[in-house]
Structures are given as C-alpha cells and as structure tokens.
Amino acid sequence: MLSRLSRPVSAVLRRGFGSSAQNNARVAVLGASGGIGQPLSLLLKNSPLVSNLALYDIAHTPGVAADLSHIETRAKVTGYLGPEQLPESLKNCEVVVIPAGVPRKPGMTRDDLFNTNATIVATLTEACAKHCPEAMICIIANPVNSTIPITSEVFKKHGVYNPNRIFGVTTLDIVRANTFIAELKGLDPARVNVPVVGGHAGKTIIPLISQCTPKVEFPQDQLETLTGRIQEAGTEVVKAKAGAGSATLSMAYAGARFVFSLLDAMNGKEGVIECSFIRSEETESPYFSTPLLLGKNGIEKNLGLGKLSAYEEKLVSEAMAELKASIKKGEDFVKSRK
Ligand SMILES: NC(=O)c1ccc[n+]([C@@H]2O[C@H](COP(=O)([O-])OP(=O)(O)OC[C@H]3O[C@@H](n4cnc5c(N)ncnc54)[C@H](O)[C@@H]3O)[C@@H](O)[C@H]2O)c1
Predict the structure, then answer these.
(1) Atom 33 (ligand 1) nearest CA
(2) What's the CATH code of the domain at 297?
C-alpha cells in the first residue's frame, strides 16, 4: 500500500495519496491511540504534505508518538495525553481528524453508539471551536449522520460556524464501492470511481452506480445485491471481527485519502473532488453527502447529485426519514447540553 502513497494521481474523485506538493500542514488526530487512530497516524506521518502531527487521546499517546517519531519522514510527531493537554494539541492546527469513540460490536447499529460518542464528539469539537476555530474538521466517529450535526451545533454555539470546513468522513463507502465493483467486473480498483451519496449508515448509504467511471452495467437483481453489500459492508467487518471492533485498517486508508485530498486542495491543487457528509441544500435533508469540489477554504462547490436512475431516486427518497431523524437527534443533543 505504501507505494500508492507516493504515486502521482491523475484522476479526480480519487486517491489524494500521490501529491508531490510540499506543504506545512499541522494535522491533529483526536483518538490517535485507537484501532483507526494508529494506522491513520502512520499514513499521515508518511506523507510529505504533513509537517506536524499532533496525536491526542485519553490513553497511550506517549507510546504511539514515540514509536511514530522514529520514522524517517519529516513530520514532527508530538503526543498529548488527557483533557488538560487537549488545547495544546490543537494549537495552530489546519486539519483535525476525529476517530475518537467506541466502535460497534456484532448486533449493534451505528446509532447504538450515540450515547457514548455524542458526548466524546461534542467535548472534542468544543475544544476545536475554542482553540482552532478555522481548522478543517473531519469526523470519523459514528454515528456520522448525527456527529456532523453535533459538530455544527457546537461551532454555532461558539459563534465560529463555517459549514465549508466541517466534514463527515464517508470515504470508506466510496473505497468499498470501488473495490466491490472492480471485483465483479475484473477491473483495476484504482481506476474505478463511484460516487456514494446520502449518509453513513445502512440504507442512507447510496452508491450511484449509474455514475460509475468507467461505465458499468448490472442486471437489476445484481445491482440490488451489490448496493446492499456496499450498505452493509461495515457490518460484514464487524461480524468477521466477532467483537473485536469495526473497520480500522480500511478506515485508516479512507481517512488518509480524504485528508490528503483536503490538503492537496488547500495547497492550491485544482479539481480535487471527494464525497462527504456535510451541511447541504441539495435535498430536503439538511445534511447530505454528495461529491464536493474542494479548495483552499474547504468546500468550494457542492457538485450535487447529478442524474440519478429511477432506482437511485427511490433509494434517496427512502433514506430521508432516517437521515432527518439522526440529524435532529444530534442537534437536540447539543441544544440540551449544558
Ligand atoms: N466513518 C467511518 O466510515 C467509520 C468507519 C469505521 C469506524 N468508525 C468509527 O470510528 C470510531 C473509532 O473506531 P476505532 O475502531 O478506532 O475504536 P477504538 O476503540 O479502537 O479507538 C477509539 C480511541 O478513542 C479514544 N477515546 C475515547 N474517548 C476519547 C476522548 N474523550 N478523547 C480522545 N480520545 C478518546 C480511545 O482511548 C481509543 O484510543 C468509532 O466511533 C467507529 O464507529 C467510523
């Protein structure tokens, strides 16, 4: 995988891993000692785009930071442990990635994580709103359909809300869709691009296979099976790990891809497109993932849904009730928080 990290990129909607551009970004990972946090931090440490890597967690960060700091790349790694060191970890950060939170166990939905993770995300994003209000905030912690509204409400409460800088990381859904389609069609997965829109839980995950490049066709029954597999791919991993957590390595890859795309765009690279769950006017849901053109200040342009097949339109309309309920749950949580 590491060779891909230094490969030039040619296409948009795609692997930010390859930019040779130098940057001096300070990136913080909150939850850096976890199953996602550690491999994600490794990938960030390996990037020429990152000059400072701040690793924050409530456990084990001195060890993770010491370990990563011996890698012969230029990013300076610093570990921060416990709430009293959180403000310092965020100082001068341009990008903050948040994988802190509990993962699913078999039989759980992402919404079952709400009670624990809502508090963790609200606490961490309150610190971001105070100490790095201009940073790009990338939330991995689930349920993403609620943790993005939570982050937005926290930033609003602090009077520093900028919807162009708050991202729900759904990249793993795109990564999975690309991989599964490539497998079925005998294609190189690195050349497949499928936008995945909507949200990041079950039926709210909507792959737009009609917009796949290269163009692919499936009979309706196969299309429905494939769509279902993409929607439940996280559960596939949760079951296979049998109680030991959810996707970590593929999520670290996807999180790094998203951060590198963002850094490339912040660095002035043109035509960088990624899907992300954000504040949106594209549908009746106030937050929705669609392909976004990224730029120096975050979201430059929402590229919208494009032309949907009748099947995809049905999936979008069927996702609305769940999406709106998860969003409201997140918003209400912050409103009721002291
Ligand atoms: N967006 C996605 O596509 C996606 C994919 C997979 C997992 N996830 C989510 O990512 C989250 C993390 O998953 P994981 O497998 O890395 O879990 P994990 O339990 O392995 O790691 C979580 C880390 O968060 C830390 N943490 C807990 N509370 C914290 C706090 N208040 N401040 C800072 N750090 C804190 C823990 O100490 C731990 O190191 C989960 O919510 C999971 O559901 C999202």
Answers:
(1) 57
(2) 3.90.110.10
200 is catalytic: yes
One domain for residues 165 and 207? no
What CATH number should be reported for the domain holding residue 10?
A: 3.40.50.720
Q: Is the CB of 233 under 6 A from ligand 1?
A: no
The rounded Å distance from CA 92 to ligand 1 centre is 23
Domain that holds residue 111: 2-169
Q: What pTM does this model have?
A: 0.94
Evaluate: CB of 55 within 6 angstroms of ligand 1.
no
Q: Do 26 and 136 sit in the same domain of this protein?
A: yes
Query: Which H or E run contains 298?
Result: strand 298-302
Q: Which residues contact 285 (CB under 8 A, 6 or more apart)?
A: 199, 319, 320, 323, 324, 327
**Residues 5-46: tens digit of each pLDDT:** 433 333 333 444 444 445 789 999 999 999 999 999 999 999
Q: 216 with 315, same domain?
A: yes
Those residues whose C-beta lies under 8 Å from the C-beta of residue 218, and which sit 6 or more positions away, are 184, 209, 226
CA quadruple 313, 330, 121, 203: dihedral sign: negative
Are 203 and 144 part of one and the same domain?
A: no
For ligand 1, whether the C-beta of 100 sits within 6 Å is yes
